[in-house]
Amino acid sequence: MKIDMDQRLTSKKPIRNTQHPIQRYRRWLLAGSLVLVLGLWTLVIRLGDLPAFILPSPGRVAARLWQALHDGTLLYHAGVTLLEVLLGLLAGSLVATVLGYVLARSRLVEQLVSPYLVSSQAIPVVAIAPLLVIWFGPGMFSKVLVCALIVFFPILINTLVGLQAVPENLHDLMRAMRATPWQTLRYLELPAALPVILGGLRVGATLSVTGAVVGEFIGADRGLGFLINVGRGQYDTALVFVTIFALVVMALSLYGLVILAEKRLLRWRQNGH
Questions:
Q1: Cα–Cα distance between 127 and 121 in angstroms, integer?
Q2: CA 86, 92, 95, 99 torsion-angle sign
């Protein structure tokens, strides 16, 4: 028995690293692609002999970034835009999730309301943003409203699809156990639809940044959209680049936070395997 046990222990195969080579060297690939982009950027400027107000060099953009950080301009306007984005994302997500649940529970309400919701998406938010600024003023509320409108539809559709995808036999099981509607939502519908809802939240997190900038383009005296207008009017193209990079960082950060929340909220699925 002891010999057989020793043979089993010694016959175990070593654990192989199944990580894909691309994932293993992801940081190096990202750094290399960044260096390549900066090199092409500099090459285009030198070959085209482009002035700074058309295409500034990476060094000039970096210097303008340092100046905007040093005098607090970038942080102030980025904070304003971030607040608008978070409020709009929160409001749009809550309304979309509640309405998606109502539509998923009632086929009749879905058939009555869905045509209007789909038709509303044919109207670009850019077209109605000036009306919102006129009706509600150039303050923060109109920017938050634009953000909420632009994130509303993707989260609504994902909520509706996720809730309707719950198998009917599981609903029959909950009814057989005499579960209340709240218990059915908490223990069945929400856990089953959460992956799809969070997928819509990923899209909404990035679109909310676009909504804030659109509202600030129309009428604002602060925010990153306002800062882009200032740089454009003063032919300060380096400032425009700095602001665009700040918007990219903001969108990527929000997207990453949603992914982090998704991993934490869906940890039960990994533990269940």
A1: 12
A2: negative
